[in-house]
Amino acid sequence: MTARLPLALVTGANRGLGLEVCRQLRDRGYRVILTARDPERGREAARDLGVEFLPLDVGDSASVARLVAELRRLDPEGLDVVVANAGVALDGFDAQVAATTVDTNYFGVLRVVEGVLPLLRQDARLVLVSSGVGQRDLLSADLRARLDLDTLTRDELSAFMQQFVDDVQAGRHREAGWPGTAYGTSKIGVTALAHLLARDLAGDPRHLDIVAVCPGWVRTAMGGPNAERTVEVGAASILGGLEAPRDDPHRFYRDGAHASW
């Protein structure tokens, strides 16, 4: 009987960092499922890597539900690693940019996480791709005080992120204490989410591990040609989250070491 390979799922993986994460996981001996919103590009990328493909639009709850159902069919034993990589960095700053960015980068991660949580195996690791640009000091003191990681619930965090979108749409985000960056604000939410999940799941008998990671500024279509890091280095920083100490309350890493936010 052929030994079961550990199963890894990577979102937003038809190019750039996600694609390289798939490559590095494959080379580590994982059975890799590459997901992408565009089926044609996703299948082509998966075929070139020799991994499997499933369609996923993180902005669509029905798409997440279909993914979960297909994952149950493919391997009833479940997932060993999930890398929530899908995200956007849009030009400009206005109500539409804020809404799209937060929906993809924060709520998209949340949809995937809550969908796959029941599928995670014993000792599974969940890696949320965040960014060091998502610094809490971008927020006013009053807003920072609301990000109390000891008491904040996931619903309250989601309401916090939606308030940013609402305040931008109403033209009052500056007076409310928000920064003028949708990307940075969305990543504050992702890093906070990793901490809340780690706290909430601490008693789960599966001994799950959840971290947020920063790949750094990487030369991809999103990062641009002047970025300081190669995609290989950025992907390695993401996968450094797989080695984070499980009992460490700090849940944000870059290059396998604590990162500040």
Topology diagram in text:
Blueprint (H helix, E strand, L loop, with lengths): L6 E4 L5 H12 L3 E6 L2 H11 L2 E4 L5 H14 L4 E6 L10 H22 L3 E10 L11 H6 L7 H16 L3 H4 L5 H19 L8 E5 L17 H9 L12 E3 L2 E2 L3
Parallel strand pairs: 1-2, 1-4, 2-3, 4-5, 5-6, 6-7
Antiparallel strand pairs: 7-8
Helix pairs in contact: 1-9, 3-4, 4-6, 4-8, 6-8
Please supply descriptive tags for the structure shown above.
43% helix, 261 residues, Rossmann fold, alpha/beta, 9 helices
Overview of the molecule:
It is a single chain. It is globular and about 65 Å long. It has a single domain (7-258), classed as NAD(P)-binding Rossmann-like Domain (Rossmann fold). It contains nine helices and eight strands. Helix 2 links the parallel strand 2 and strand 3 (52-55). The chain is of the alpha/beta class and 261 residues long. The longest helix is centred in the middle third of the chain and has 22 residues, at 95-116. Helix 4 runs antiparallel to helix 6 and helix 6 (154-169) runs antiparallel to helix 8 (182-200). Belongs to the short-chain dehydrogenases/reductases (SDR) family. This is SDR family NAD(P)-dependent oxidoreductase.
